[in-house]
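Good morning,

Attaching, inline, the backbone tokens for the sequence recovery test we're adding to the shared suite. The designed sequence is right after.
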């Protein structure tokens, strides 16, 4: 095969039959669509080209900058395409969860801007939400930017309807089940529409990340709900079922595919296989021969740090107890949680060391009175390296909405600390109208901020 430019190599990926000895489900012919073999390494190569293909020449002619919210594969693919056309980019993202993605974008010459929004959910009221920032920038200077818009533009799902779904239908003719990780959700929606033309009874199972966990490229249920509320592409009615997958399960099946099948695909691919197993464990194996497809979304190599954090034993790393990323809360965590309405009383009674793990910018914009600001990446490094705080001192951990702080407090308790979490975070504290909350109309500022 000869190609005149790299974009010609996007798509037409092969399909691989997963041995029954691997998936273990009777009457099921399970196929993986090998999207990790796209030239830039992922399914998002198609998405990026779909978003740009109609306008890329005019973007280059008008010297516009492609702007997008992405912390991974979409940003990488957009950057590669932009580079071939001599176009600049501006990528605005929440803090990168996988260091290799950031480093690859830097290698490609990407213009990156990291922000720490209150949560990973779309929040039009959060001035640090990447989509909020992009909207503001485009409105201020519409002639300077071209918004790629993977989460809300129909060009996302259309490219997958025209190519990814059409290729699967061409190769397999009839598909009974589609399992797809839900990120921007354009791929699953487009593929589903293509496959339903051959089989209107197709079962489409969306794959989400379990609450309080991280599987790169896959959203949590609450994030998907916020996307729907913000008029993004996600539509829950398009899916017959939703399977929530844990990090541990996704990693286990990622390693199964790597070691037993030779499929060098990342954690979202393992999550898709986990969802296949979980779905049929609940529903029972098909009563007659059936075909199912899942997506091998991207390559394993950019996730080695993610794997090492969660399974250091694979790399012969010796650790004492669980790492902060591998730690999982067990049992009732409510005794560790301090409600916003009780915050003032708790602080007066126990005089804890209050640690605000939000970004320095967020802590300055909406301060928590009396708190030491240690942004999350630095905080994780500190607590992973030893015991940086006085062991006899009570700790109260604060984040934006309470999701991260409960995890951090639980981990600190495994190290002997008496640690607590502010329930529902700064947002909950604001709702409780506590005197210890100090925004623009409440007065005070934090003790100090330790920059990451």
């Amino acid at each position: 095969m000869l190609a005149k430019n790299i974009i010609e190599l996007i798509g037409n990926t092969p399909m691989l039959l997963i041995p029954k000895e691997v998936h273990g489900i009777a009457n099921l012919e399970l196929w993986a669509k090998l999207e990790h073999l796209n030239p830039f390494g992922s399914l998002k190569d198609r998405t990026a080209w779909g978003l740009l293909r109609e306008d890329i020449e005019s973007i280059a002619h008008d010297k516009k900058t492609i702007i997008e919210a992405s912390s991974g594969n979409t940003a990488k693919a957009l950057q590669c395409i932009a580079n071939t056309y001599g176009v600049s980019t501006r990528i605005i993202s929440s803090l990168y969860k996988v260091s290799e993605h950031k480093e690859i974008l830097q290698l490609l010459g990407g213009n990156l801007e990291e922000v720490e929004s209150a949560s990973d959910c779309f929040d039009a009221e959060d001035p640090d939400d990447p989509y909020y920032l992009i909207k503001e920038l485009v409105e201020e200077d519409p002639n300077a930017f071209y918004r790629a818009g993977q989460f809300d533009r129909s060009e996302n799902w259309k490219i997958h309807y025209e190519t990814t779904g059409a290729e699967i239908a061409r190769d397999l003719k009839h598909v009974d089940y589609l399992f797809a990780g839900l990120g921007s959700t354009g791929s699953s929606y487009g593929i589903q529409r293509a496959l339903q033309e051959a089989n209107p009874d197709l079962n489409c199972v969306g794959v989400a990340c379990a609450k309080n966990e991280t599987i790169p490229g896959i959203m949590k249920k609450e994030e998907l709900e916020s996307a729907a509320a913000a008029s993004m592409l996600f539509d829950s009615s398009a899916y017959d079922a939703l399977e929530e997958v844990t990090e541990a399960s996704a990693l286990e099946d990622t390693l199964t595919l790597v070691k037993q099948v030779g499929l060098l695909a990342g954690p979202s691919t393992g999550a898709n296989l986990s969802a296949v197993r979980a779905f049929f464990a609940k529903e029972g194996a098909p009563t007659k021969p059936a075909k199912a497809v899942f997506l091998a979304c991207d390559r394993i190599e950019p996730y080695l740090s993610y794997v090492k954090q969660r399974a250091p034993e694979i790399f012969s790393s010796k650790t004492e107890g669980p790492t902060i990323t591998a730690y999982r809360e067990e049992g009732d965590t409510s005794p560790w949680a301090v409600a916003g309405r009780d915050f003032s009383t708790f602080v007066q009674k126990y005089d804890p060391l209050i640690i605000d793990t939000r970004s320095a910018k967020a802590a300055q914009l909406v301060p928590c009175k009396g708190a030491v600001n240690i942004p999350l990446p630095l905080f994780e490094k500190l607590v992973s390296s030893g015991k940086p705080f006085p062991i006899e001192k009570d700790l109260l951990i604060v984040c934006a909405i309470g999701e991260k702080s409960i995890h951090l407090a639980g981990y600190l308790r495994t190290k002997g600390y008496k640690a607590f979490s502010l329930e529902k975070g700064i947002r909950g504290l604001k709702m409780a109208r506590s005197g210890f909350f100090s925004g623009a109309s409440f007065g005070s500022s934090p003790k100090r901020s330790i920059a990451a």
